[in-house]
Amino acid sequence: MLTCPLCASADTAFYHRDARREYLRCRHCALVFVPPAFHLGPEEERAVYDQHENSPDDPGYRRFLSRLFDPLRERLPPGARGLDFGAGPGPTLSVMFEEAGHPMAIYDPFYAPDASVLEAEYDFITATEVVEHLFAPGEELARLVDRLRPEGWLGVMTKRVTDREAFTRWHYILDSTHVAFFSEATFRWLAEERGMAVEFPAADVALLRKA
């Protein structure tokens, strides 16, 4: 059986199969993931993302992002510096934080691939609708936590797994670029593993604070 891409445990088991691909679940950290054999190549992945029409001029998109923006902003000191990881083709969350007085850097492997920003330290890092796309979430999230200053925040927005029956009917798995599915239990495992506190202030939102 394949090892888990989040915690590297070999204790994984079949979870679901549909017409396109299959899904495994880790018994250690509870991540549900798509095996690498079903991952898209870079060009196919980029083609899907190019269809996204996100813009800071879209009030509806801002309202969507406010589910993470509002509770995280309440917890930040004035002038806290942040990184929007996986900003996508139309960076918007970074604009919202800059408007609120927080200097921002952005990174996206396709649209803002300046890896030098991943060498700096930050008071907070956001990843909205990102972790479900990560082929190696354990490696990527460890790198982000390492870039946080003490008492820094990692804000994640992603829809969460609830149970197997709901998973089989879930629209979220229809997106071929979604390959890693977190549950509340997964975030609690991550927080404990990285020595962080975690809270869930809004739907689909997890805030993790570094010790």
Automatic annotation (TrEMBL):
It comes from the Bacteria. InterPro entries: SAM-dependent_MTases_sf. This is Transcription initiation factor TFIIIB Brf1 subunit/transcription initiation factor TFIIB. It comes from Halomonas campaniensis.
